[in-house]
Amino acid sequence: MGVLDPPPPKLLDRVRAEIRVRHYSLRTEETYVDWIRRFILFHGKRGAQEVEGFLSFLATEQHAAAATQNQAKAAVLFLYMRVLGLELPWLDGVVHAKAPRRLPVVLAPGELRRPLDQRTG
Predict the structure, then answer these.
(1) Which of 9, 94, 81 has its CA nearest to residue 46?
(2) What is the percent of the chain where pLDDT is above 70?
(3) Across residues 102-119, what is the average pLDDT?
(4) Enclosing H/E stretch for 114
(5) CA 67 – CA 30 distance, rounded (Å)
(6) Which of 14, 23, 54, 104 has the maximum number of C-beta atoms within 10 A of its C-beta?
């Protein structure tokens, strides 16, 4: 009876190993693994169309913030490029989440004076 080869590592274990080789933070590892797990559960398939569908779903159905969608995209691209060794064509079909517009905060002269007058020192 010969020596049995160990089973190949599971996909998420491969993701963790690749992240650790690159010395990413533990928080990044946890986040990427979570997003990749969500992607797998969403489609259970591979390919650019599935990635586009997942990222567009985050923007349109989940109303994810732009930063959240970008984080998910980074995780899924890491899976394809670093773990699976596959290049994805540019994801032109992705519906992008809208970044919130930030309005400048403007204080009236009296509003600015109050905190300065209350300052001790």
Answers:
(1) 81
(2) 81
(3) 69
(4) helix 109-118
(5) 17
(6) 54
